[in-house]
Amino acid sequence: MRAKRIGQSFLRTAIGRTYYAAFLLTREKLTGMGITLRQDEKIHKEVIEKLKERDSFSADLLDDLREERIKADYYLYESFKYEQGISCARISELIINKVRNL
Question: Domain range holding 31?
Fold first, then answer.
């Protein structure tokens, strides 16, 4: 697929999916390690904080992805480029690989 044919809705969705792939795997890994996590809207920050205790590099990347996801979901004036989607996917893959090895 050529980059010019990828629309903003596709990129916004892709960025959100890259975040949630890394977030959900991290959440499950932490709970599998016996860590109790809150079950409200603050769980996203808590997952990042708990991950930071074990792997600050991955936690910082996950927080960066979270910020990109928020921009993609809520800031409609922001325009996204194909390269941003690819970058988010690569960062997500890196986080997933590192978290699996915790």
Answer: 7-100
In a domain, 76, yes or no: yes
Q: Is 20 exposed, middle or buried (0-12, 13-18, 19+ CB in 10 A)?
A: middle
Q: Say if 16 falls within a structural domain.
A: yes
On whether the CB atoms of residues 68 and 88 are closer than 8 A, the answer is yes
Task: Give the global pTM.
Answer: 0.91
Which DSSP state fits 2?
Answer: -
| Token pair in block for residue 57 | 């590099």
Q: What is the pLDDT along the chain (102 residues), one digit of tens a residue?
A: 444 557 899 999 999 999 999 999 999 999 999 999 999 989 999 999 999 999 999 999 999 999 999 999 999 898 999 999 999 999 999 999 999 999
